[in-house]
Specification:
The chain is elongated. The protein has a domain at 107-185. The protein has helices at 12-15, 35-42, 82-104, 106-140, 148-156, 160-168, 172-185. It has 187 residues and is mainly alpha-helical.
């Protein structure tokens, strides 16, 4: 499988530009560590239990590892920075207000969506019936179902304006002539 950068990767900086950082959950930053600490951690340690191989940066596993007991507990870590804290609180209150409105309007929203769905379904059904009626009228006025004209009408009657024009004609003869002219024009 070939690794490719996702198409949305270029959008990530814009997406996370104004994201609030919760400083209370961060363990530390690169600026807080001294250069000596970083250098000592990145240097491979050789001991009798774990020998590095050529080109490997494997770390030792005995006395060389630091104890995690001196890590500050989460309670001792600073809270969020003031700027991001107020932004986070504002975001939370805005979201809570939106959710509250959605909950109160939930019944109205469901009803409105149901009505829209019913209207759309009814309109589609009416269009389908109109389409089938036009094809039946074409057969009734003498168009053979195996003819090229009938096949042409399948596409032609997909347009609502063409169906309306055809249905407005009153006589079989007028409909037959209309079909012939429409069929000739398409060539």
């Amino acid at each position: 499988m070939k690794f490719e950068e996702p198409s949305w990767a270029s959008l990530l900086p814009a997406m996370i530009k104004d994201v609030a950082i919760e400083w209370g959950s961060m363990l530390g930053t690169a600026a807080a560590r001294s250069t000596a600490e970083r250098d000592s951690e990145d240097t491979p340690v050789q001991d009798s239990t774990s020998l590095p191989t050529s080109g490997s940066r494997k770390r030792g596993s005995s006395d060389a590892t630091k104890s995690t007991a001196d890590s500050p507990s989460k309670k001792e870590q600073p809270a969020m920075s003031p700027a991001s804290s107020s932004r986070s609180k504002k975001s939370k209150t805005v979201l809570q207000k939106l959710l509250g409105k959605l909950k109160t309007n939930d019944g109205k929203t469901v009803k409105a969506i149901t009505q829209l769905n019913d209207k759309q379904h009814q309109r589609i059904q009416e269009q389908r019936e109109s389409y089938m009626r036009c094809l039946q009228l074409a057969v009734d006025c003498g168009i053979d179902e195996a003819s090229e004209e009938y096949f042409f009408l399948h596409d032609h009657f997909k347009d609502e304006r063409e169906r309306d024009a055809y249905l407005s004609l009153k006589t079989w003869e007028a409909r037959r002539i209309w079909i012939q002219r429409a069929f000739e024009r398409r060539r």
